[in-house]
Amino acid sequence: MASHTSVEGVVTVGGNVVAELRSMNLETSAEMIDATTLTSTSKINKAGTKSFTGSIDCFWDETDTNGQLTLEEGASITVVYLFEGNTSGDYSYSFTALVNSVSISSSIDGMVEASFSFTGTGAITRGTV
After folding, report:
1. Cα distance between residue 15 and residue 81, in whole Å
2. I want to staple 57 with a disulfide (CB 3.0 to 4.6 A). Which of 7, 23, 62, 91 is the partner?
């Protein structure tokens, strides 16, 4: 059984690695269509349209002009998630998405952090590096 640590993870936006990555999340789902008839004795469901959302969290890096600074609210982005890293054979998730929100925060005892969330447009391409 293969296992991976988070240190291997990479996110690219427009082909550029996002700097200072702290976490990444990708959630996929499919609508469930109720196809139950009056004569059914059990619930019948069919898969409907698929959708996905995701987010990335980083330490804020204003010099990451091709990564973090391209993630503006409303922007259409091309993203690749590489949870296991970018070594040949590693699994990848490629997609287009719209940036929903950008949050930059700081606290007295912490680093300046940035969070970016998005909603997918179209399908995810699953493959390998």
Report:
1. 11
2. 23
